[in-house]
Amino acid sequence: MGRSPSCPKEGLNKGAWTALEDKLLASYIKAHGEGKWSDLSRRAGLKRCGKSCRLRWLNYLRPDIKRGNISRDEEELIIRLHNLLGNRWSLIAGRLPGRTDNEIKNYWNTVLRKRAKGQASIGTPPSKSTQLPAAQHTDKLRDGQLNSTNNNQEMSGNIATVEAHNGTQVLDSLYSDGGGTDLLNEQLKERDVEFEENPMQPLAFDEAMFKNWTVNPCLNGNDAMDFDSLALLLETDEFSFCRNINFQT
DNA sequence: AACTCGCGCAACCGCATCAGA
DNA sequence: GTCTGATGCGGTTGCGCGAGT
């Protein structure tokens, strides 16, 4: 299993995404679906690393995404799941529809960890993964009454149990205690079915037209873009000067 | 008004794993 | 079985912004 090379450093944009980049990425994925990220970034006309595109889509552009305003229920679920799984953010996120691993990780690192730290007693050495108390203490945590009675060994045992099994099936059994989890499971199943019922759309492609627009100077290095992305790009003010150019040669 | 500081969060980085050649 | 590219994940960084002085 070799390692993939990092994203090439030269010629790619870094840092915050612009509205135009978001639009290009979203419209491309809407038309052609996810996957093949490195190829996708090129075809969508984005000077971005494939990994960067994937992250942007998964964390911010996905239509079913929820941002901010993490509810008490969600917060409690995060805490309980973290007790069971440790820093397995993607698994935790999988149990919170519309939430991303990055958001949960950030929420944990800012709000919950700080709160736990503030309430923890003196003399408890911080563990590497900064565990919170076990599930039965979540009410105290929520009410700001958390103390040092957490049992790290017990948590480690839980984590080890989960590690010994595999992924979310274990969680299903661990969370068969009712509450909102059944609803969550149903929602997750619905999303899975939805995903399977919407395979990637084939890309409509016109060879002659492709040859015409790829030689146009307005493309300026965007010759791998698909039609939709190009059209989107040309709609922007930045490329307004290109609109009157005849693409037929 | 100008400056500093701390916080939140978006994005990057490195590594692990998977899948296909 | 090995190699390589693609993808996924968790840790970390650094920028932007608001609060405080």
TrEMBL record:
Keyword hit for Ribonucleoprotein: no
InterPro entries according to UniProt: Homeodomain-like_sf, Myb_dom, Myb_TF_plants, SANT/Myb
Domain of life: Eukaryota
Pfam families for the chain: Myb_DNA-binding
Limits of the Myb-like domain: 9-61, 62-112
Record region (Disordered): 118-153
Biased composition (Polar residues): 121-133
Major site of localization recorded for this protein: nucleus
The protein's name: Transcription factor MYB123 isoform X2
Organism of this sequence: Gossypium hirsutum
